Amino acid sequence: xxxxxxxxxxxxxxxxxxxxxxxxxxxxxxxxxxxxxxxxxxxxxxxxxxxxxxxxxxxxxxxxxxxxxxxxxxxxxxxxxxxxxxxxxxxxxxxxxxxxxxxxxxxxxxxxxxxxxxxxxxxxxxxxxxxxxxxxxxxxxxxxxxxxxxxxxxxxxxxxxxxxxxxxxxxxxxxxxxxxxxxxxxxxxxxxxxxxxxxxxxxxxxxxxxxxxxxxxxxxxxxxxxxxxxxxxxxxxxxxxxxxxxxxxxxxxxxxxxxxxxxxxxxxxxxxxxxxxxxxxxxxxxxxxxxxxxxxxxxxxxxxxxxxxxxxxxxxxxxxxxxxxxxxxxxxxxxxxxxxxxxxxxxxxxxxxxxxxxxxxxxxxxxxxxxxxxxxxxxxxxxxxxxxxxxxxxxxxxxxxxxxxxxxxxxxxxxxxxxxxxxxxxxxx
Length: 429
Description:
This protein is an alpha/beta fold. Helices cover 24% and strands 29% of the residues. The chain has helices at residues 48-51, 154-162, 223-228, 231-238, 266-288, 305-316, 340-352, 370-382, 410-426; strands at 2-6, 27-28, 55-62, 66-75, 80-87, 98-107, 110-114, 120-125, 131-136, 142-148, 165-166, 170-177, 187-195, 203-209, 242-246, 293-303, 323-327, 357-362, 387-392.
């Protein structure tokens, strides 16, 4: 076990074949570019870690809402980069398409821009060859994952940017034969949002589970939209993982009632959690069967209730998952009468889970104080659980939305995932 307290963590680069199987995709509006762009190939004296940024990049939208294309027209040996920053109309119609030219700096593997109006934007090249961007201005950051546009001439790049951008995600439907609660004996379809890595072969998968409605504060039909805009999903995708974000019963287009939002009691909370575990188990089994998935490298993760669900699932199905990443996890807020349920379930998971876990929490969390989580983590460890608790203490605003701030946790998450890969390699997976 390791417990790390972090005041700041540097950036490595809101806070899912069966029934109804369908893949739905959408397109973002086109992005305009100036007709005088000139892509100058890097000269021989430009270092490779600078030259790699040259060219045109597109194929995604900031936070899933603002289509974006970046054209790096010239990179120089001193690290300066001349670029066209372009964007399309955003999805809710409040931002109109446009472009600007800016000069940035490439240093330590990062292309950095500071815009006159205040935003700060950084780009890094991912292991899969894509470009991962972070945009920070006043509120929580937004992220984008761009792929290289083929061609070096203006006509080709402008034409590519003028086409509607295919989204980075696909909508799929996952079958479930329910054995829990009022849906027992029914076959249901669960909606999920799939971010599939372009890397070839069977790839590891992260299943990212959502939280609750508040209850009732957030409309359940909004959850697929949150999934498509998920910052964590784009971060894990940039690390080479396929990511799936499932909707549990009643959320989004998933069939069945929202069992887990019923008032808490000893009986109902057990049914709620059992129903959620059943949903996640259906997703795990479905993903393991896909030809593009490495069935020995399944990571379960999640935010709030989804984070606790990931921990509990690993305790109940220790042979099905390779790792757990728990963001701000818990079922009930610590100040409600049923809050002991969290500690009890974490302790039970510690007794049976066999894999190392990563727990990520922040201070100023309106649901779970760090003191309370340290108590829950101690119960998990005392029962035999193997984990690392990483605490973030400089998150702006509500710490419960930690998962929406990848720059605060992606270094430690990347290290955790890399260690899992090493362990899998040593085990011969």
